[in-house]
């Protein structure tokens, strides 16, 4: 494993061999227990549809001019795959020190620290040609280099590059820890990374897990097979989207059904439920959160990930926040939680999106209090925060996420907008509309701009699908940012004061967003918004019946950000103590008996509402209440 950070192989020391043998022996019994808990797959109706997997569609191409020699070394010794320059020969030691001093190795940290994470010139030109498209592209260009945005089908998945760039920022010590953690987890889980999702909107988690597993297999020699056990989503069109793109083994209409005894155990669950006013007991978020907590109490999964908006950490009662309440409830169930505020623009995506993530790992069978100064969870979580912080990179160019000019997808989107079938417009009260009118009037007067504003002839056609208030924002930005060298973006569904203009970066995407590109003079297509969240055009599939633009934008606005999930998932697999977590999960899990009719997979055309399927638990008196 130490040879991971060197450009040539070095034999492990006797101490390293002894340590590896002890780790293997210690994991044997846990692996057997975990495999036994996962037995009985024949009782689960998979419902998986055929077709190519998502991972097959996003395999990254070899970089131009890349040295393909491997000198017979295994994948974990091929440093070139991590896109870091090799250190000079004089810097490489002949053998690692017995003391385990990582500074004596030719480390990746030195090379990556000196590299510019914002230099994406190689990535900007990366393209993928698949099947017949490759032959047609070669003939049509007579051997000339194909521009990356000539066709929609040839744009490479930017998430593949983001995965590689983020891992290249890890230092030698973190690389070794990740490699060891992945191998350890593979032994415990039998080479399967089983996961479930609930209320995550688009299940971007599934795509990121597959990308990471592919990368880890190629660069660390660790084979983990992703297995999407279950997805729970109450919205019918979101369930159809999830089934079409990710084919989880079960798609349920309610989170409460995830506690079924017929459900296979999974190592990780990700939830993205609403959390508005939990403490005051308002909105449907309380019910959903209680269902998630009840599932956690019954099944005790080894690890959890909860995503929510920044307001989760805003005081929502007498000196207490919703985040503190959720952490306290998880502490009562034996979970250690590491709250994170993640910014998408710091992890490769040009979007101003700040979200709170709550990764948690099962550390005890009894309640804990991580706020107690005497409580030490370092042994269970390791250098989690350091790994997440070190994987920060500069955002890729916006063009990597846009449809090609003149592509069929962009033309279809523009036709939908002209026909009035575009994104839904925010319809506020008359009082709110009056406030917008006053805000816009004052802003125009301050810049001595004429009122009412009038569109120029060249803008008139481009803005036909916009409302009067949205046109006022377009005219205002044309006057204020005409000299801007970069592309400016604004959400036209926000007022002139509450909505900010961003240069070469998208505003935060929400379900009602309508993003305007000033220089291109067009609206951002919903499929482009999905690409910003991690589902590039290379993996978006046609749906029958197709989703409306408003539905697609709803999917994008409520999705996990894929680029942010990569460092969190990497740190969880590399730092969490899954030995203890899986053992405790096997001992404490109490599956719920649910009638078979309620636990069957939801079909693509299912329209069953969440209220039609409820849990038949006889243990409701023992439920967790917030």
How would you describe this protein?
The structure is a single chain. This protein is an alpha/beta fold and 626 residues long. It is built from 21 helices and twelve strands. The chain has helices at 14-37, 54-57, 108-114, 121-124, 132-141, 158-168, 172-189, 204-220, 236-246, 285-299, 322-332, 378-381, 384-390, 408-418, 430-446, 457-460, 468-480, 526-532, 549-557, 562-575, 578-588; strands at 192-198, 225-232, 251-252, 268-271, 303-309, 335-337, 340-343, 354-362, 488-491, 502-503, 515-517, 522-523. Strands 1, 2, 3, 4, 5, 6, 7 and 8 form an eight-stranded mixed sheet that branches. Strands 10-9-11-12 form a four-stranded antiparallel sheet, with no helix packed on it. The radius of gyration is 26 Å and the shape is globular.
Question: Which terms would index this structure?
Answer:
626 residues, alpha/beta, eight-stranded mixed sheet, four-stranded antiparallel sheet, 21 helices, disordered N terminus
